[in-house]
Specification:
Protein name: Alpha-amylase
Strand order of the largest sheet: 1-2-5-13-14-15-16-17
CATH topology of the largest domain: TIM Barrel
InterPro entries: A-amylase_thermo (IPR013776), GH (IPR017853), GH13_cat_dom (IPR006047), Glyco_hydro_b (IPR013780)
Oligomer: single chain
Shape: elongated
Strand content: 15-25%
GO molecular function, one term: alpha-amylase activity
Helix content: 10-25%
Largest sheet: 8 strands, parallel, barrel
Number of strands: 25
CATH superfamily of the largest domain: Glycosidases
EC number: 3.2.1.1
Mean pLDDT: 94
Structural class: alpha/beta
Cofactor: Ca(2+)
CATH class of the largest domain: Alpha Beta
CATH architecture of the largest domain: Alpha-Beta Barrel
Radius of gyration: 24 Å
Number of helices: 11
Low-confidence stretches: 490-499
Distance between the termini: 30 Å
Number of domains: 3
Length: about 500
């Protein structure tokens, strides 16, 4: 997928607690024109296949990859978001606006089995899966996936005990644990957290099995051909064989003839782990989880915050080409297992850091754009303006002043290609007014720049391109050339349209 050269911008077009009304695909289709107007170049849609909870499933408890809301399974025909027809219509509506669509692909596990099977298994220490507990014993595992509601339509493959490496529940004794099937091994190409983090949940798919790989390639070719999506978001890659995705993505790109942009979710604060998974091939990008945690920790640090280190240890700081930056997502919402919600006061600063700088491919969370009513978290009021500044002004050479722990700034010089462009940004945690001398380039000499966010004021650029920019006591201030700052769009905070 070719990222739009006019500053690529991704939208995560869902949150965890969306209403399970089956209307989300219709909502996204109606919003497609606004996505293009707001400058989004790609939209990441939630998992589209039937989950174990049927019409209530967010999509990560995958039951049947082939059922996109077409068959009566798990108590419903539709998924949480709608029907197969509505899903395909939403993709088409978004692509018609010149915006790419990313599909959420979840291949690590299966849940909601149709039946159990007896199998010899070895219980593993949950805190170190390389260690065994006791002797192998027979368990009854939920591993039979026959998809009776689909009755062999689209694909006849049925999943059973040989397709998985382990489970976390023994129906025979009613006990939970981490059970590896005898004759199977955990993948060696995964995170070494907990000794070996191959197992995550449900029935763990054996990605080293040739039959499984062939089946997932068959499904992928069908799915990508049917939907025509432009790229994929890959779930839980930390728990999945690296070689599997190198092979699967290569096959999918060959089948579709597309570049097929891919971004993986590797949930680790250690940038070294992310770089190790990326390897030399660069077959995918990764979400910049270390940067998210920098934002989270900064937002909760109180007086200990040091803005000069806000980018330290992030993927975008060492491999910007493969970094998809974000502030929050569905997993970081309150009450989620990975809860780490950035505090509201810091979110505008965090969004400025991913939207108005040149490195990385930023992803805006729908929950920050519209708010999260379930969590009583409002929309980020400054977000739309920051998106517009990115779309129209944040171009050209970047100069950084990360030299004071409570006051940092940067400028973008702008380019002739983008008209009167350029921006100056200050982030401050200092009590009261603060100023910083910054350069926007000699090409702006003599211009008046106006503050469009934070304070009401102007500065004059000197003959060499420098000016003293003031925060006026605001935490985030943004200055733009006055000649175009007066022409900023006046768009209210987006309101989710009715279905």
């Amino acid at each position: 997928m070719a990222i739009n050269t006019k500053n690529g911008l991704m939208l995560q077009a869902f949150s965890w607690y969306l209403p399970a009304d089956g209307q989300h695909w219709r909502r996204l289709a109606k919003m497609a024109p606004r996505f293009a107007e707001e400058g989004f170049t790609s939209v990441w849609m939630p998992p589209a296949y039937k989950g174990q909870a049927g019409a209530e499933d967010v999509g990560y408890g995958v039951y049947d990859l082939w059922d996109l809301g077409e068959f009566d399974q798990k108590g419903s025909v539709r998924t949480k978001y709608g029907t197969r027809h509505e899903y395909l219509a939403a993709i088409h509506a978004i692509q018609e606006q010149g915006v790419n669509v990313l599909a959420d692909v979840v291949l690590n596990h299966r849940m909601g089995a149709d039946g159990t099977q007896l199998v010899l298994a070895q219980e593993c220490d949950a805190q170190d899966r390389t260690k065994s507990i006791g002797e192998p014993r027979e368990i009854r595992a939920y591993t039979r996936f026959e998809f009776p509601g689909r009755a062999g339509k689209l694909d006849r493959y049925q999943w059973g005990i040989t397709d998985f490496t382990g489970v976390d529940y023994d129906e025979l004794e009613g006990t939970t644990g981490v059970y590896r099937f005898v004759g199977k091994e955990w993948s060696h190409e995964v995170s070494d957290e907990l000794g070996n983090y191959d197992y995550l949940m449900g029935a763990d798919v054996d990605l080293d099995d040739p039959r499984v790989r062939a089946q997932l390639a068959t499904w992928g070719a069908w799915y990508l051909g049917l939907t025509g999506v432009d790229g994929v978001r890959l779930d839980a890659v930390k728990h999945m064989s690296r070689s599997f995705y190198l092979d699967w993505l290569a096959r999918m790109r060959e089948k579709t003839g597309k570049e097929l942009f891919a971004v993986g979710e590797y949930w680790s604060q250690n940038v070294g782990e992310l770089r190790g998974y990326l390897g030399r091939e660069g077959a995918m990008s990764l979400f910049d989880v270390p940067l998210h945690f920098n934002f989270y920790h900064a937002s909760t640090a109180g007086d200990d915050i040091d803005l000069t280190h806000i980018l330290d240890g992030s993927l975008v700081s060492v491999d910007p080409i493969h970094a998809v930056t974000f502030v929050d997502n569905h997993d970081t919402q309150p009450d989620q297992a990975l809860e780490s919600t950035v505090e509201p006061w810091f979110k505008p600063l965090a969004y400025a850091l991913i939207l108005l700088r040149e490195a990385g491919y930023p992803c805006v969370f729908m929950g920050d754009l519209f708010g999260l009513p379930n969590d009583q978290i409002p929309a980020v009021p400054e977000l739309e303006l920051l998106m517009e500044v990115r779309r129209r002004f944040a171009y050209g050479e970047q100069r950084d002043w990360f030299d004071e722990k409570d006051l940092i700034g940067w400028t973008r010089e702008g380019t002739a290609r983008h008209g009167v462009s350029g921006a100056a940004v200050l982030l401050s945690t200092r009590a009261g007014n603060a100023t910083k001398l910054m350069c926007v380039g000699a090409g702006h000499a003599g211009e008046t720049w106006r503050c469009v966010l934070g304070v009401d004021g102007t500065v004059t650029i000197d003959s060499e391109g420098w000016a003293e920019f003031s925060t006026g006591g605001a935490r985030l201030t943004v200055y733009l050339p006055a000649a175009t700052a007066d022409k900023l769009d006046s768009i209210p905070i987006l309101v989710r349209p009715e279905a």
